[in-house]
Amino acid sequence: MFQLIPYEKFRDTPSVRFFDITIANSNARDLVFHDGAATSPNNGSEGCWQFYMHAHQEDNLLALSGGRTFYLVNLSWKQPFHMVRLQANGDILRIPPGTFHRSVSDPDGSLVLNQAVRAAGANLETEFRVYNSAEIPLLLKATSQSAPPPRRHGFEQFQLRVA
């Protein structure tokens, strides 16, 4: 299952805060900038949602600015579909390997740091494939209008934006 990981503030000075955001065993860093209300990955040509899924990589995502909504689907979870809200200065979202995921940024965009943990043999070609839900019946079923609604996390004070 995914996790929301708090991190520790270790020092305050006038107008400056310092945080320890270290993810143990992280061996890769990705910085992902969304300009405006970007969706990643984009929808397929027929309008179906597309997802990333890393077989050999754990993502650890921290919003540095703006906000982003993540759509997570893992067919092995008791409830497979979740929506998680990340806001700057909030928790780190840990997405385990084997989880389909996509994200939508707020209208003003967002900047997210990923402190990934990549297994030996992982490479960008295989780990960053795009999966079209139209081609994966169980994924399409889990995210369809007739499926149970996703479980929402972190939306208490934010307005919902749909992909």
N-to-C SSE series?
EEEEEEEEEEHEHE
Count the strands? Answer: 12
Rounded average pLDDT = 93
**Share of β-strand residues:** over 45%
**CATH topology description:** Jelly Rolls
Summed up, the domain count is 1
Short structural summary:
The chain is mostly beta strands and 163 residues long.
Descriptors for this entry?
163 residues; mainly beta; Jelly Rolls; ten-stranded mixed beta sheet; two-stranded antiparallel sheet; 2 helices; 12 strands; globular
Describe the structure.
By secondary structure, this protein is mainly beta. The protein has one domain (3-153): Jelly Rolls (Sandwich), CATH 2.60.120.10. Helices cover 7% and strands 49% of the residues. The chain has two helices and twelve strands, in the order ββββββββββαβαβ. The chain has helices spanning 124-127, 137-143, and strands at 3-5, 8-13, 16-20, 28-34, 39-40, 50-53, 57-73, 81-87, 92-95, 100-118, 130-132, 151-153. Strands 1, 4, 5, 6, 7, 8, 9, 10, 11 and 12 form a ten-stranded mixed β-sheet that branches. Strand 7 and strand 8 form a beta hairpin. The longest helix is centred in the C-terminal third of the chain and has 7 residues, at 137-143. It starts with a strand and ends in a 10-residue tail after the last strand. The mean pLDDT is 93. This is Redox protein.
